[in-house]
Input
Amino acid sequence: MKKTRAYYEALLDLGFVKGEKLTKSEEEQHKANMRNGIEGDANIAEVSSGVYRRVNDEPDMETFIKMYMLKSLYFSRAIRSCLVFFVVIAVIGIAIGLLAYIVPTILEWSRFSL
Output
């Protein structure tokens, strides 16, 4: 796989690597190269608007897979927690709706039976 700028940006975005901040002169050089259409180093990625980082510590495949599995587990737990929250809110809403329907009906039936 060819390691492009998008590859290094994805590694930084997903938190698999920590990038080192470019010095002012390196950053100005990189911006000048980008304006002139010159392709610079592929391992320099734009983190946010105008902030660039250099990726030096690329993980090996085994470390990458382990980190990916741990992040997947973390995100699946977060999704499960959100899902439980919304299911509990839905059940409470249904219970309140049923009570709002049943209580007036029972009161009306008891009024007729008297």
